[in-house]
Structures are given as structure tokens and as C-alpha cells.
Amino acid sequence: MKILKIIYLYFLNSLQIHLASPVVFVMFFLSKIFRFGLFIVFLYFLGSSLVSVGDYSVSQLLLFYLIFNLVDTAAQMLFREVYRFRPLIISGGFDLVLTKPFPTLLRVLVGGPDFIDLGILLVLLAVIAYTLAVHVRPDPVSLLIFILLLINSLILAAAFHIFVLGFGILTLSVDHLVMIYRDFTALMRIPVDFFPGTLRALLTFVVPVGIMFTFPAKALLALLDWPLIFIALSLGLLALFLSLRFWNFALKHYQSASS
Amino acid sequence: MRKYRLIFSLAFQNEFIYRLNFVLWRFRNVLRVLLAFFLWSVVFTGRDTAFGYTRPQMLGYVLFVLVIQTLVMSAPSNDNVGGEIANGDLSNYLLKPVSYLKFWFTRDLASKLLNILFSVGEIVLLWLLLRPEIYLSFHPVSLLLGLLLWISGVLIYFFLTKIAVFAAFWTPENTWGFMFVILVFMEVLSGAIFPLDVLPGWVQSALQFTPFPYLIYYPIGIFVDRFSHAHALRLLAQSLIWLGISIWLSLRVWRAGLKNYSATGR
């Protein structure tokens, strides 16, 4: 309970920081909405001119893109503090985090959420709710599997960010690892099925961005088999377990060299 | 001229300091191309043409984005100028016998040279791995017009981004916000993500009155023979008009900014 209260306070502090620069807040928000909207327009015209792309109709393609944005935006919103981890390490400020009676990992993982992304998330949720209610109309089982896989996607995103934090402690490098993760995830604006054999397998099971972004949308469309759902959930838990082990390993090797 | 040659040389050597960062940055560029490449490969499965493009034309477009975008949009000045104005470091440059804008343009050119060398290597590697059939016009007029439009795009990009970053003279805390807005517009409306032919005709007509398609879409369009020579010539003239406007506007903003500059913190 106490931990939740402190996380709430972190959220509150982060909101106040964002509201201190309202012009920047609005500019970032509108730019991101514009970028999101224009890719939707592109997919719409692509699909409407060609009827189908690969095995998917235009509405299915749009659903994949919406779910991609949902997971991507939620992960960015929650784990934004990871982007600020490097300065904390090289300035020696991480020592102060370690000495406080609060779980260190939570502080550096979810200690600074991004409220610009929260605004976008709300817009996205409204669009997705409309799409599901009017166009997709999934059955209750598909919806339940979708929610499970969505949680699994966030677990995988958390695991990845924990790995990045661990590498940050060991190598002092964070920025490019995060950006490479972002570029891998950006590939999933289109379904993972669009990639050829080996690359598809790599993007599904090795760098599991396919599981994170394509699988939840496939569940909504009832296009996912049970074995794959089971593999996806197992991989999520395995990734989280390994990332926590790696975090503990990295923490034991932290040398506090900058303090 | 000699001093700028020296700046170019030093900036080029400077690019080699963070080698891993540079390699990772290039790797990220390749990843971006893969999305478009495989999306269009799927689109062309069972089709010979789409949106007026043949398959080799479209795959050519996608791969050339890597080279053109690299040359147009790699610009360390975007990451540094705003900060130098905001924290007063600009004063150091104003005291030196160099033009601040020429200094940063020279540094950008050094970065572009290194990036272009890598991007050509990446194109060759991607071609060897994926073996796509790609189309490139070998007509000398097309090549010349495309090249001129490309150079004009490089200059338009430099001056437009400087207009955004000069916001630091008035609102140093909002600089990155302005920059982000213009970078998003450039990313999506320049044709870097998809060729603008996909959009309806009236949108394409409207976009030619903005500077964005002159950065990537029109130069590549000429290289893959999407436009007749007469049309390409008209596009070049329009591009030069945009270049004139962006130079004039950026210099006006620069001079107005200097009058407002107070070297806060110095």
C-alpha cells in the first residue's frame, strides 16, 4: 500500500513538471497525434485502393496499427524514467536512490511517467473502443485473451526496460539500446506475418516484438491458436524472470564510480 | 574558405569519437527501411502495379529513401544550436571570425559525408541480402535534375530546422517542442515513410505548396522516373523558390534573435 502511495506521488510530481511547460506539452501532444493520424490515413488509402494487403483487409490492418500504438504508448508512458537513467548513473545520483527505503527498481522504472503519452493513450482507447464495438465485435473469449495478451505485452516491455537498466549500470550506455528497442517495435506497425520466414521467427520468439504487438490484435480477430497463446504467456513470464535476475546481477556489480 | 575546410576536417574526425553510437545509429536506419520494404513486398504479391508504381520502382523508392534521407536529414546542428543559444555558448562563436550558420552547415556536411558513405554500403548489403529488383533512371537529365533537387532539399532542410531552433532566442525552454513539431511534419510529409502518391490527388496538390515533399519525395520520384522531365524542371523551380523563402526567413529570424539575445547565464 505504501509503495502504491509513493508511486502515486511520483506520478503527481511528474504531472506537475509537465504542466510547468504547457506550451511544450501541447506541441508534443499535437505532433504525436498528427503522426499517428497520418499513418492511419496512409493505411486507409493503401487498403481502400487495394482491397486487401496480404491476408488482411483494411479494417484489420487498421486494428493492428491501433493495437501497436496502444501497447507502444502505454509502455512509453509507464517506463519513461528509463530514458533518464544514464544521467542518474554518471552523476552518482543513483547512490541516493539506493539509500532510500523504496524499491530501487520501481523508482528507476516507473518513477517518471510521461503524461503527454497518457493523453494520447486516452484518445487511443476511445478509438479502439469504437472500432471494437462497431467493426470488430469480438466474442467474450477473444476479448479475454486479448486482455491477457495485452498485460503480457506490458510485462515483456517491462522486462526489456529492466534489461536496459541493467546494461546501463554495467556499461553506462542506455540511449541507443532503448532506441534500438523502439525501432524494433516500430517494425510492428504492420503485422509480423508480413516479414519473411526467418525474420518473422526472429521478431516473434527472439526479440519478441511480434508477441507484444501483433498477437493481441490477432486474438481479437480470433486468428491465434492456443499453443501460440501459451507460448506467448510463457515467454512473457520467462523474460520478466530473466530480466529481474539480470537486474540483481547488475546491481551487485554497481561500483558507484561517479559518486 | 580555408577555415571552413578545417572545420569540416575536424568535424569529420570528431564523428569517429563515438564509433559504437554511430554504428548503432546506422543500424537503426536500416531497421526503418525494413518496415517499408516488407510492407510493399506484401502489397506487390500477386500485383504488377500499385498506385502507378511497378514493383521495382516502389522497392527502388524504399531503398533510395535510406540514402536521400541520410544526406538531407543528418544534421548535428539540430541537437546543438538550441542549447548553445539557450545557455549562452553562442557568445563564444559571435566573438570568432566565423559565420555561425556557415560553421554549423559545415559541421552538418561532415556528418552527412560519413553517413552517406555508410548508407551506400548498407544499400549494397541490403541488396545482397534481399536481392530485390529495383529501378533507377539512368537518363542523364533525370539524374541531373534529381541531384539538383536533392541538393536543394539539403539546404531547405538546414534553413527550415534553423528557423525552428532559433525559437531558443525567445523561449529557450520550448526549443525542443518547436523542433519536435517541425521534425514530425518533415518525417511524415516528406515521403520518408511512404510515397505521397498513396494520398488522394488533392492532398498531393496541396502538399506541393509546402516545403516538405521537396526534401525526399520529389528527388526520389525523379530518380525512379515518376515525373516527366518538364514536370521535374517545374519541381526544381518550385524547390528553388522554397529554398529562397527558407533562407530569407531564417536570416530574418536569426537577426531578430540576435537583437533579443542576452547571453543569459554568462
Structural notes for this entry:
Chain A has 259 residues and is mainly alpha-helical. Chain A has one domain. In chain A, 78% of the residues lie in helices and 2% in strands. Chain A contains twelve helices and two strands. In chain A, α2 (22-50) packs antiparallel against α3, α3 runs antiparallel to α7 and α10 (197-206) packs across α11. Chain B has 266 residues and is mainly α. Chain B has one domain (2-260). Chain B is built from eleven helices and two strands, in the order ααββααααααααα. Chain B has a two-stranded antiparallel ribbon. In chain B, β1 and β2 form a beta hairpin. The model of chain B has no long low-confidence stretch (mean pLDDT 89). The A-B interface holds A 21, 23-24, 27-28, 30-32, 34-35, 38-39, 41-42, 45-46, 49-50, 53-54, 173, 176, 179-180, 183-184, 186-187, 189-190, 194-196, 199 and B 20-21, 24-25, 27-28, 31-32, 34-35, 38-39, 41-43, 45, 47, 50-51, 171, 173-174, 176-178, 180-181, 184-185, 187-189, 193-194, 198-200. Chain B: Keywords: Membrane, Transmembrane, Transmembrane helix. Chain B: This is ABC transporter permease. Chain B: The chain crosses the membrane at residues 29-46, 58-75, 109-130, 142-170, 176-194, 206-224, 236-254. Chain A: It holds the Pfam family ABC2_membrane_6. Chain A: InterPro entries: ABC-2_transporter-like.
